[in-house]
Automatic annotation (TrEMBL):
The lineage of its organism: Eukaryota, Metazoa, Ecdysozoa, Arthropoda, Hexapoda. This is Hexosyltransferase. Belongs to the glycosyltransferase 31 family. It comes from the Eukaryota. One of its GO terms (cellular component) is Golgi membrane. The keyword ATP-binding does not apply. It is an enzyme of class 2 (transferase).
Length: 345
């Protein structure tokens, strides 16, 4: 059932994309479109050149982040000389050294067509900042912003990730926003993008694992407690947990524009994939069925069994041992060319 919905959403995405490409061909000037329509993507004949409609942004936009002034304090231009199929933006806390190391040694290893950057905010300790700069000198994969890295500031981090994509990696065909305790099955992911979607990119894509009618937590004991002033409604709009957000560039741009003019709400995935996604009128496509099941996770990591179901993600909240076990598995087993065709209907 999920698969069927995915196929039909894929169909819409492809049709929307082709229609737009055709329209773009026919019209030499961009038509006046709805807010999302303005966030079009422009492909040349050879499908490599790609740009965002910067004219729609305020000239001071680069140094503003929602409601604060902003600078990148560390930037790496990982896309300058390449047009990656996939840009991966990993949220990480500054002190999560081991988690970043695990990712670099496993699924984050250099892969053709994939670029990975770690998103951090600023820190109060000069020693910690120096350590981060050393780490960045070694790996060249940090993006750091001038806001303080705290959990109430995570929405700044997410919007910084969108900003980085727009200004510094407009070439990326797809964008994955994830966290540092996740396993991404990179061989399967690149095949999924190339063969099940399209190597030229797509539009109106937000593939994730939607949560519907989630209650706003009001208990003082909850880390995620939200006051009535912050959010008056009893439930959140449909949103997706922030560890597996696969975006197409047009959705990134529309969300970024919306975020820059919207109020600040600190739970980033609810704000961006819930409230703002509803405002730009994009629908989530549920790919929960491409997240490994708990049973298969155990089968692979603890029992070294072979599993038949394909998966793109090895869940969130994983221990290092699990990430390494999954990595060992995907590097010693062949990956289907088409992830979807391999599913049993
Ligand atoms: C595509 O076009 C761009 C810009 O005109 C050019 O730099 C690039 O070399 C072209 N690529 C191919 C494969 O023709
Ligand atoms: C950004 O950088 C400029 C120039 O270095 C500086 O004047 C400004 O205070 C910085 N803003 C923030 C928010 O760090
Ligand atoms: C969020 O970042 C801003 C800008 O750096 C800072 O002034 C503020 O204290 C931070 N908020 C929290 C809750 O840490
Ligand atoms: C990469 O591109 C940016 C603009 O996005 C530019 O400012 C920077 O100098 C370039 N860096 C390199 C190493 O080419
Ligand atoms: C709260 O719910 C109302 C009615 O469904 C809706 O119009 C409004 O946008 C919601 N508020 C927020 C902050 O999401
Ligand atoms: C599991 O997969 C590996 C690699 O494809 C293969 O060599 C092995 O024979 C398989 N084991 C079983 C029990 O099917």
């Amino acid at each position: 059932m999920h698969e069927r919905r995915l196929w039909s959403n894929l169909g819409y995405a492809v049709v929307a994309f082709m229609t737009f490409a055709l329209l773009w061909h026919l019209l030499s000037t961009p038509p006046v479109l709805s807010p999302l329509g303005d966030a079009f993507t422009v492909y040349t004949h050879n499908s490599t050149v790609f740009t965002y409609p910067f004219q729609l942004l305020d000239p001071s936009d680069y140094n503003r982040l929602i409601d604060i002034s902003f600078n990148f304090t560390i930037t790496n231009f990982v896309c300058n000389e390449t047009s990656p199929l996939l840009l991966v933006l990993v949220h990480t806390a500054p002190t999560n050294f081991a988690k970043r190391r695990t990712i670099r040694e496993t699924w984050g290893q250099e892969v053709e067509g994939v670029k990975i950057v770690f998103m951090v905010g600023s820190v109060n300790s000069p020693e910690l900042q120096k350590t981060l700069e050393d780490e960045n000198r070694k790996y060249g994969d940090f993006v750091q912003g001038s806001f303080l890295d705290t959990y109430r500031n995570i929405t700044y981090k997410h919007v910084m990730a969108l900003k980085y994509t727009i200004y510094h990696c407009p070439q990326a065909k797809y964008i994955l926003k994830t966290d540092d305790d996740v396993f991404v099955n990179m061989p399967a992911m690149t095949n999924f993008l190339k063969f099940d979607l399209s190597p030229y990119g797509a539009s109106r894509v937000l593939f994730c694992t939607p949560r519907r009618h989630a209650n706003v937590l009001r208990s003082y004991r909850s880390k995620w407690r939200v006051s009535f002033q912050e959010y008056p409604n009893r439930t959140y709009p449909t949103y997706c947990p922030g560890w597996s957000l696969l975006y197409s560039p047009d959705v990134i741009f529309a969300l970024y524009c919306e975020a820059q003019v919207s109020e600040y709400f600190w739970i980033d995935d609810i704000h961006i994939t819930g409230t703002l996604t509803e405002r730009i009128n994009v629908k989530h496509t549920d790919i929960e069925f491409l997240v490994i099941s708990f049973k298969n996770l155990r089968n692979i990591v603890d029992f070294d069994y072979n599993v038949t179901e394909p998966f793109l993600y090895g869940r969130s909240d994983l221990e290092e041992r699990q990430i390494r076990g999954l990595w060992r598995y995907v590097t010693t087993h062949s990956v289907p060319k088409s992830v979807l065709k391999d599913l049993q209907y």
